[in-house]
């Protein structure tokens, strides 16, 4: 967060980061907030298996991930789930069948900036396993993994590790 130095209002090298969520300029009294961003993660499930993706880019390149992403402005979390699943997996989902599970805080590190997120977890049950053509820019592969074989250390994000610890206990 320290890489932002110049005030976008007065142009001076005067921005100060408060260490949590706000930059301020003592010269012109400008404030810039780094508020929490909404993100969705969808557990696509068939019986006792889940469908995971492998990240092709940083952050956490090569790690397993749930399909999902950031919620766009003026978009509901459910609409974000539908959009992200189609963008990443070419999977068309019925929003009414998405089941909200929980939310967890997370930090998404990207180009030396820590974005605080609130990750909203959903479950989407499918009647049969499927394979999809990949969005090569985001995903290197997809895998079906039995829940009992899921290694939490293979997951990209701490919020997903925390989520699956609880999710697996409730199975």
Question: How would you describe what is shown here?
Answer:
This protein is mainly β and 171 residues long. It is 15% helix and 37% strand. The protein is elongated.
Keywords:
37% strand, mainly beta
SSE ordering: EEEEEEEHEEEH
Range of helix content? 10-25%
- Tally the helices: what do you get? 2
DSSP strand tally: 10
Unreliable runs: none
Summary, kept brief:
Helix content is 15%, strand content 37%. The protein contains 2 helices and 10 strands.
Helices and strands in order:
Blueprint: E1 16-17, E2 22-24, E3 31-33, E4 37-46, E5 49-55, E6 64-65, E7 67-70, H1 77-89, E8 99-110, E9 113-125, E10 139-146, H2 158-169
Parallel strand pairs: 4-9
Antiparallel strand pairs: 1-2, 2-3, 4-5, 4-7, 5-6, 5-10, 8-9
